[in-house]
């Protein structure tokens, strides 16, 4: 089972991802990083909320 980490898409996120990857490697675990489209997950969420608002949707869940 892999270690999956949703980490911001910036320098600080890169450092953290490398640390987690090293830990995963040490315990012989696969590692997968999920990145937001923008710099951080909050920016992605806000953009999705704006898009949903313009289309009349009430929640970010409507995009799924």
Shape estimate: elongated
How many strand elements?
2
What structural category characterises the helix and strand content? alpha+beta
Strand order across the largest sheet: 1-2
Q: Could you give a short account of the major beta sheet?
A: 2 strands, parallel
Query: What portion of residues is helical?
Result: 40-55%
Number of helical elements:
2
Gyration radius from CA atoms, angstroms: 15 Å
Beta-strand content bin: 5-15%
N-to-C SSE series?
Answer: EHEH
Which spans have pLDDT < 50 for at least 5 consecutive residues?
A: none
Separation of the first and last Cα atoms:
25 Å
Mean pLDDT: 89
Give the helices and strands, then pairings:
Layout: E1 3-6, H1 11-26, E2 31-34, H2 41-55
Parallel strand pairs: 1-2
Describe the structure.
The structure is a single chain. This protein is of the alpha+beta class and 64 residues long. It has a two-stranded parallel sheet with strand order 1-2. It is elongated and about 45 Å long.
Spell out the key features of this protein.
64 residues, alpha+beta, two-stranded parallel ribbon, 2 helices, 2 strands
Task: Please outline what is shown here.
This protein is α+β, with helices and mostly antiparallel strands and 64 residues long. It has helices spanning 11-26, 41-55, and strands at residues 3-6, 31-34. The model has no long low-confidence stretch (mean pLDDT 89).
